[in-house]
Design goal:
single chain; 216 residues; alpha+beta; Jelly Rolls; 7-stranded antiparallel sheet; 18% helix
């Protein structure tokens, strides 16, 4: 890992080339194990349209979407529990997130040529003071950063494999999205394309404490 400081765009912090090749490969091995237990799927919008991005998750819950809406669930749409959060993911959270709560979910998104993610806010979590940490693996992606207001001005930059993005503080609810990827710019992902890991705290503090006490 490099010691280079972050770029700050509208409160969103970006560490370029933060993770070396060996670290990226370890993370990708974790992704492959997650996908073996909880296969990638295409979420649906409330209107029944399949999203272009494929997705799975790790942790105590995962993000799903169907005709019932966007939400976190304790189980994969196929019925199995999500796999545990891998230790290498937690290590990156400890390094970059500066949060006293552990991440409860890691969304794993797979982008290929032609797949995009429109501008959106990450606001399905109960505790919006906790950060969202994003890790890029694989092909370059054009990352668009807006403002707190939908329709505000935007700025863009290319994210490469090994880049780290933090949405926290004033940048936590900034609109953001992926316009496109550049296919073939990395060989980290065995099946091609780009993997984006986004770790986040999902529940409110009281809910997390109650769950931890129930597991003791």
């Amino acid at each position: 890992m490099t010691g280079r400081g972050p770029i700050d765009i509208g409160g969103v912090k970006i560490w370029k080339a933060a993770l070396d090749r060996a670290t990226q490969e370890r993370l990708m091995e974790c992704v492959e194990r997650i996908a073996e237990v909880a296969p990638f799927f295409h979420p649906e919008t409330r209107g029944g349209r399949k999203m272009s991005v494929r997705m799975t998750s790790a942790g105590i819950c995962g993000w799903v979407s169907d005709r019932r809406g966007y939400r976190y669930e304790r189980r994969h749409p196929a019925g199995m529990p999500w796999p545990a959060m891998p230790t290498p993911f937690l290590d990156l959270w400890d390094r970059f997130a500066a949060c006293d709560r552990a991440p409860e979910s890691c969304l794993v998104n797979h982008y290929v040529a032609g797949v995009r993610m429109g501008l959106h806010q990450d606001r399905d979590e109960a505790d919006l003071t906790a950060p969202v940490l994003s890790i890029s693996l694989g092909d370059d992606a054009l990352f668009r950063i807006g403002t707190l207001r939908r329709g505000g001005p935007t700025r863009s930059l290319w994210l490469s494999s090994g880049d780290v993005v933090l949405l926290a503080g004033e940048g936590r609810l900034v609109h953001h999205g992926i316009d496109r990827i550049r296919p073939g710019t990395s060989r980290i992902v065995p099946w091609g394309g780009r993997i984006n890991l986004t770790m986040r705290v999902v529940t409110g503090g009281d809910a997390s404490r109650s769950e931890a006490e129930a597991q003791d």
